[in-house]
Amino acid sequence: xxxxxxxxNERDAIxxxxxxxxxxxxxxxxxxxxxxxxTAIVIFLVFASVVIILWVGAxxxxxxxxxxxxxxxxxxxxxxxxxxxxxxSQVWGEISQAAGAAERLTELLALAPAVTAPARPLALPVPxxxxxxxxxxxxxxxxxxxxxxxxxxxxxxxxGEKVAIVGPSGAGKSTIFHLLxxxxxxxxxxxxxxxxxxxxxxxxxLRRRIALVPQDVVVFAASVGDNIxxxxxDADESEIKRAAELALADEFISRLPQGYDTAVxxxxxxxxxxxxxxxxxxxxxxxxxxxxxxxxxxxxxxxENEQFVHEALKHLMQGRTTLVIxxxxxxxxxxxxILVMDRGRVVEEGTHxxxxxxxxxxxxxxxxxxxxx
Length: 373
Fold this sequence. Notes:
Elements: H1 2-6, H2 10-62, H3 68-86, H4 88-110, E1 132-139, E2 150-157, E3 162-166, H5 173-180, E4 188-193, E5 196-197, H6 203-207, E6 210-213, H7 224-229, H8 237-246, H9 250-253, H10 273-287, E7 291-295, H11 303-317, E8 321-325, E9 337-342, E10 345-350, H12 352-358, H13 361-372
Helix pairs in contact: 2-3, 2-4, 8-10, 10-11, 12-13
C-alpha cells in the first residue's frame, strides 16, 4: 500500500481491480444463467411428466383399463421421480465445482519433489565438524536449463575457517548457499559436507547442521521469543535469552512492552531492519549449527545498526565454519580467505592484501568501494 501511494498509482490499481471484479462478475453471471436454464428445463420436464401421466392415466381410467387407485400410485411415483430429477441441477453444479477443485488437488499431489532423501541415507559424522568441499560443480536452474549459473566450481572450507565469497551480482554466490542447503542438486560434480556427499545424506539431517542468516530476514507474526525459538523449537526461556544477549538483541527486547512476549506483527512490521537482523542472528546462535551461512547480513543497515550486527556476528562465528556473501568488502576483511566469483566461476582466491596486490577483479571492486567512499 505504501509503495502504491508513494508512486501515486492508485488510479491504475483501481482500474486493474475494477477489471478483475468485472471478469469475476461476468463469470458469476454466466454460471447463474447456465444454472437458471438448467433449472428451467428440469422444472419443465418435472411438470410435463406429471401432466402426461395424468392425461394418459385419465384416458385409461375412463376406458376402464385402469383403476383410479393405480393412477394415483403412478402420479405419486411420478412426483417422487420428478423431485429427485429436480435436484439434478443443484447436484450437477456442486459436482462441477468439486471436480475443478479435485483436479487442482490431484495436480498438487502428483508433484514429485526434485530433492528427496535417498532410500538408505549415509549418516553424517558425530560430532559434526562443518567441513565443506565443492568439486567441479555445475548447476543451472530448472527454469533456464541452458544457462550454467555455476561452471566447474571447486573449493574447500576447513572446519572453523571463515571464507568470504564476493563478486558482481549474478556471479552465482547465493546459488552456492542454495546447493549447500540442498534446495537443489548440482547438474554435475559433487558437494561434500564432513566427507559425505550431499546426495547420499538425509536433507533434513544436513540442514540441522547449518544456520542461515539471510539478507531478507523473515520474521513471523508471533512474539519475539517465538521468532528466536524458531532456530531450535525445544529451547527453553533461558537459552533464548542467552542467544538474544549474544546477538545484542536483549537491549532492545527489554524495552518492548511485553519483552520477549511482545508480538512483532506481520513480517516484523514493528521492528527496524537492524532489530530484525539481530533476531535472525539470535536464531542462528540458538541453533548451534557447525556451519554458518551469512548472506549479505549487513547490506541494508545504517552505520550504527551495522556496528551492532558486526559485534553480534563475532559471537556467532566463534568456533564455527563460516561462509560469508558480501558486496561490502569492508565486511570480509577479517575472513581467512576470500573467493572471488565471476560468471559462475571462482576466478581469484586469497587474502585481501594478496588479491589487491594481484590487480584483478577483486582489486577493481576494492578500488571502486574504498576510493569511492
